[in-house]
Specification:
The protein is an all-alpha fold and about 260 residues long. It has helices at about 1-20, 25-35, 40-60, 65-95, 100-105, 110-145, 155-180, 180-200, 205-215, 215-220, 220-225, 230-255.
Length: about 260
């Protein structure tokens, strides 16, 4: 009876510990995981270097246009941030730590949700970094060229640009969650723009298909600051195809997957 009572007490204590573990604690843990691995550290360093370098390089060959310089960093961000998201979502399986993670937190949905937060926050932080770098570069280029700087930018254009980076990062999360294999997810993500470019050249049907399902194209109106109802419909359709459905299938797969 004593042993039974002790085991029951241990089970209750473990259950209470799980219930007390807040979502923000999981987010902090996943944030550390995001930047603790060697590949993530290298990729983060490359991302910062590419972001800062592209802004400075564009400033050297272009005029002092603040948002043009900041937006240049988005070219590299649109490729590197989704790759970082893929590594975040597949890290448990490539490093064989899923058993430990899901033992400490059996509610797998909460773990997956916590994994989504750091890469999406990193996308916003990367955009802010680009604008912080673009400000002094714009002022320096204006002074060097002896021309007035262009600082005007519509708030909805900035928000649209940040939203586009977040959406592309979410695509990386969805692809990683669906496949649970980093190399396969990265290859598919990087090859889809080439594939859609080829499809878009296959006549009118190809143009329509690419116009509705190519997420890189449907996010362009966000970055251009020119967004209409038709653009919203195309963005929603492509986001459902490349984020919503893969994410749902991935969550179902992880929820039912045996871990050894």
């Amino acid at each position: 009876m004593t042993d039974t009572a002790a085991r029951a007490a241990n089970v209750r204590a473990a259950s209470e510990s799980v219930r007390r573990r807040s979502f923000m604690t999981l987010v902090r843990v996943e944030t550390r995981k995001l930047f603790d691995t060697r590949s993530s550290k290298i990729l983060t360093a490359i991302l910062v270097t590419v972001g800062v370098g592209s802004v400075v390089a564009r400033g050297l060959v272009s005029g002092p246009h603040f948002f043009t310089l900041a937006g240049t960093a988005g070219i590299g961000f649109g490729t590197l941030l989704p790759v970082l998201a893929i590594l975040t979502m597949t890290g448990e399986w490539s490093h064989r730590t899923a058993l430990t993670t899901f033992t400490l937190e059996p509610r797998r949905g909460r773990v997956l949700a916590a994994k989504c937060v750091p890469p999406l926050a990193a996308a916003v932080a990367a955009c802010l970094l680009a604008m912080l770098v673009a400000a002094p570069v714009t002022a320096a280029v204006a002074a060097a060229q002896g021309v007035p700087a262009t600082w005007q930018v519509a708030p909805h254009t900035v928000l649209g640009w940040v939203a586009a980076m977040v959406i592309l990062t979410a695509e990386g999360l969805a692809m990683g969650l669906l496949l649970l294999n980093a190399p396969a997810a990265i290859v598919i993500y990087l090859s889809t723009p080439i594939l859609w470019s080829a499809i878009g050249r296959l006549g009118r049907a190809g143009e329509v298909l690419a116009g509705w399902l190519d997420l890189n194209s449907t996010t362009n109106p966000l970055t251009n600051g020119d967004f209409s109802g038709g653009d919203l419909a195309r963005l929603a359709t492509s986001a459902l195809a490349w984020i919503g459905i893969p994410m749902a299938v991935g969550v179902l797969r992880v929820s039912r997957k045996d871990i050894d």
